[in-house]
Amino acid sequence: MEIISNPTMDEIKGAARALKNGHLVAFPTETVYGLGADALNEKAVSRIYSVKGRPTDHPLIVHLSSFDQISIWATVIPDSAKKLAKEFWPGPLTLVLKRSDLAKNYITGSQNSVAIRVPKHPVANRLLYEFEKLGGSGLVAPSANKFGAVSPTTSLDVRDELGEHLLKDDFILDGGNCEYGIESTIIGFDGEIPQLLRPGSITVDQIEGLLQIQVQKSEFNSQTRVSGNLQSHYSPRATVIVSGIPDKGEGFIALSQVQTPEGAVRLISPSTNIEYAQQLYQGFRLADKKNINRLIIIPPTGDGIAESILDRINKAAKG
Length: 319
Ligand code: TXA
Ligand code: MG
What we know:
Blueprint: E1 2-5, H1 9-20, E2 25-27, E3 34-38, H2 42-52, E4 61-63, E5 74-76, H3 79-88, E6 93-99, H4 105-108, E7 113-117, H5 122-133, E8 139-140, H6 155-162, E9 171-174, E10 185-190, E11 193-198, H7 204-211, E12 239-242, E13 251-253, E14 265-268, H8 273-289, E15 294-297, H9 305-318
Parallel strand pairs: 1-9, 2-9, 4-7, 6-10, 12-15, 13-14, 13-15
Antiparallel strand pairs: 2-3, 3-8, 4-8, 5-6, 6-7, 10-11
The structure holds threonylcarbamoyladenylate and magnesium ion.
């Protein structure tokens, strides 16, 4: 497995060929790094599950280079989904739609829906474009971490997470630090009504503002296999405590305006909520590197992106 920094066009084409030949390629997106495989190659997709240690009933997101490819994967596309795609793609938004025959059980975890996203990171977008030019139909790409662990936001995080399981002909494409730092917002549909399945950087306010329809935030039902239902996710090894006071040597994460309690180990000091999202997973990883046992987090307050950050912090605390 080779890490390719700031890949050239030729190197991206090479990675697309590797994917078409059934190998795995980890690549940067604007949210987190993904581990890509040809969505139509069952063997390659099954390697994703084994490399990640992920249960096979946990569905994958199909990544496409543009909206134009969507109709081969989804049969019903509500108007509200079209509007969201037009406004926010390419970008950090995933739409869950009724699947076509192309979206096999080994992608969807046997659900009759398929998750689709068009990422905007130039390396991801170009890789998808080149893959489609070779006759490919889309790449499945879960976050490039061990199941239940913290999503990677740099190429070195990917190497640390999965490097030992990647083979000679697999690649890691490096594209710098991820712009958003938390996973995409996932929206499902009940007819035209959008349902929030995973909060992210595209906020409920933005979606409601565009559609003029209220987003359903009802409790996830047990059939919907999104990460939110799992006990442990996005977790560092340290025990995460939300809003406490750290003892000496314990980890501490808060906005920069919050002072570090005496003796605590400050892990990140984001000055805005956007920076908070960008840096949170780096803070988790740093806690692990420093062998910190207990990590105290003061979450940001407010709605929008703050709610998405709080969602990830709460899930880490459950782990
Ligand atoms: O930002 C992201 O979405 C990143 C980048 C790499 O694109 N990908 C990502 O994939 O977060 P993953 O596999 O780590 O998380 C995808 C989530 C899972 O929690 C999965 O359960 C949910 O999407 N999902 C996938 N297909 C679904 C479906 N048909 N119905 C409901 N949830 C689905
Ligand atoms: Mg993930």
